[in-house]
Design a protein that fits this description.
- The chain has three helices and seven strands, in the order E-E-E-E-H-E-E-E-H-H.
- The chain is an alpha+beta fold and 142 residues long.
- Strands 1, 2, 3, 4, 5, 6 and 7 form a seven-stranded mixed beta sheet that branches.
- It starts with 8 loop residues before the first strand and ends with a helix.
- The relative contact order is 0.28.
Length: 142
Amino acid sequence: MPPYPARPQVGIGIVLLRGDEVLLVKRGKAPALGAWALPGGRQELGETAEEAARRELLEETGLACGQLTLVGHVDSIHHDPHGRIQFHYTILDFTGRYVGGEARPGDDVTDCAWVREQEFDDYGLWDEARKIVLKAFSVVPP
């Protein structure tokens, strides 16, 4: 998404669960360059939200998943130093269980990590992402 959009863009997030862990990725591009976050990205024209979730997960981590459930949404609005909206995503978050494979960074991420809730502070995980992850654990059975 180019900076300073005329309207919000649809973003997709994936809360991939493995036991009591969630997969996080380190962002390699703006917005949130260098931050740990949930895998995801922008929905493309002609693509369903679930197709976008599966594609982004595969592109960013090399992983596929089983059944996906829509778990929530978050608005991610970034302002520049002058207060103008530089980026605005409405993010639809899906959750599902890990089914196998080895996570590896790809596309626009530089690292991947399986993280437990008590480690979120070590990764500086955004408060809204934390809420979505905790909700995902209550929605998807182990």
